[in-house]
Amino acid sequence: MAYEIFTRKVRRMGTPSVTFNKMGRLQFNKAATAKLEKEAVEYVLLLWDAESNKVGLRLITKRDPRAYKVAYGAKGNGAGFSAKTFFDHIGLDYTETRTAPVEIGEGDILLEFQVPEDYFAKRKQQHLVLEGGKKGKTG
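User: That's the sequence. What structure does it adopt?
Assistant: Structure tokens below.
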């Protein structure tokens, strides 16, 4: 009987990273969480740049109805929050768990990351209604 090497499904990263999981949550690894903890972050605003597919997290000190409450892991092993409506808004495909690198931001932006193009849901082909009520495909 020959041995086979098992490939881990979860990769531990020492550099700051964010995971978009199947439950619609944004999860930060320990390295990214260290920045949030250092700034004593409780709430953040999500900023979206559709041209560059970038997301920024802005620390806020006052309550804001647009803010997300950051939850920290009990063992200090990460932080995150539910972002399903945000994922839906930007068209992110979260049917599988994916990870992206995080950069430490500047100014009022704590963290920022780019969402890779292949993380977005495939756009469905639009149908045109032709004269006479017949449908045709675009593209």
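The mean pLDDT is 87.
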